[in-house]
Write a structure and sequence with these properties.
CATH class: Alpha Beta
Bound molecules: adenosine-5'-diphosphate
Order of helices and strands: EHEHHHHEHEHHEH
Structural class: alpha/beta
Number of domains: 1
Amino acid sequence: MSPLHLVIFGRQGAGKGTQSAHIVDAFGCVHVSTGDMLRAAIADETELGLAAKAIMDAGGLVDDDTMIGIVSERLSADDIVANGVLLDGFPRTPAQAEELVAILGDRSIDAAINLEVPIEEVTERMLARGRDDDTPESIAKRLELYESQTRPLLDWFDERGLLMTVDGLGNEDDVFGRVRSALDALNGTDPQVGSGGCGE
Ligand code: ADP
């Protein structure tokens, strides 16, 4: 049984965090959310947290070198080497995507889930949840950066047959039902992913 290495994509407010919790529960990989890591750094008032807070509140992106450093360190930890990973919020730029492939090496990505929710719906959801960085200006900026920096990365996964687009509209359990069927369908279908998942 080899551990699964997954990436989850989707607009801000698409429900990546919620679905990630279900996925790691069902498939046993480790959830790595760069947004959560940065918010923890802010709460702990670390150097990273202090530097990241203003950027995050304004809806900007923390610089690639910093993010690559944090993620590569996390990916080398024993729990991930043993159980695999679900990356949420990384990669977000072309430079991060290139680095991810270099970091993982022969632990290749098994699949990328794309949680598809229209702009109007995610905007409403974010305004309703009211996180510190969920101001109208920050939301608009993050959605714009998603389209220009992150969405192009989906093509890379698509070209390799690794992209699974899932309709993210509807209640949490229905959406997870779709995610689960997509991930279950991985097993045994593609030579790269057929080596088994962490849920087996
Ligand atoms: P959202 O998807 O709603 O923006 P996240 O929790 O994924 O929420 O990220 C919150 C913020 O953290 C981002 O707006 C950005 O400032 C920063 N961030 C998270 N991941 C990255 C990353 N991979 N590269 C650069 N900045 C990041």
